[in-house]
Structure formats: C-alpha cells, structure tokens
Amino acid sequence: MNDLTDIKNLDDIKLLVDSFYTKVQQDNLIGPVFNEKIGNQWPAHLERMYRFWQTILLEEHTYSGSPFPPHKHLPVAKEHFNRWMEIFTETIDGLFQGKLAEEAKLRAKNMAEMFFYKIEYFRNGGRNFFES
After folding, report:
1. What CATH number is given to the structural domain containing 91?
2. 55 lies in a domain?
3. What are 24-51's pLDDT values in tens digits?
4. What's the pTM value of the predicted model, to 2 decimals?
5. CB hemisphere CA count around 66 (13 angstroms)
6. 86 CB-near residues (< 8 Å, 6+ apart)
7. Where are the coiled-coil regions (predicted)?
C-alpha cells in the first residue's frame, strides 16, 4: 500500500529540497561539483531553492532572479545532468505522489535540458550543436 501524498505546502518543498541536496552532496559524480561551487554557503543555497520550488510548484511568488547565470561556467557534461535528474526523480518518487510531484519532475527535466544546452552554447562560443 502506498501512503505517499502530493506536494502541498512549504514544508513539503523543504523536505524535497533537503532530501535531494543531501543526496547530491554525497554523490560521487555531482557532489564534488556542487560542494566546490557552493562551499560553506549551503544554508543560503537551500533557502534559495525553497523559494524557487515554492514559486514553481505552489505558485507562491517568493523567488526572483535568474537561475541560469550561476550555472553557466560549471564543469559539467550531459552525464552530470542525467545524474542530477536521476537523483531528483528518485527523491520525488520516494517522498510524494500526485499531480505536483509529476509537475516537479517535468519542470526539473525541462530545466536540466535547457541548462545543458545553454552551457554547451556558451562553451562553443555562441554556436549551437547544429552549426559547424
């Protein structure tokens, strides 16, 4: 029997974010990238992520800013984004079930794909994959 419920409030967002980033910090592939970039600023990063997901999923507009610029120069490849998405999906599926849980996975997938392509675009001097 599955007792999981959907994401309903800020406490659920905090549970999601805290659980996800605990796994991220310990992951062999993406942990070093996050830990190097964030350093001792994890509490501030988590607060920002609470506001981001609260805005995205609960439509409570507590986040403002541009999420991409801090990621622009990260030393990441497609495998990093795949692992990020794998951990995110596992975290959601282990904690929640419902419409907003599915929405969170869709939003995360779209964001990961966009960030990957934008990072590659900047690395290639403003050229995309389809240009020679």
Report:
1. 1.10.490.10
2. yes
3. 999 999 999 999 999 999 999 999 999 9
4. 0.88
5. 6
6. none
7. none
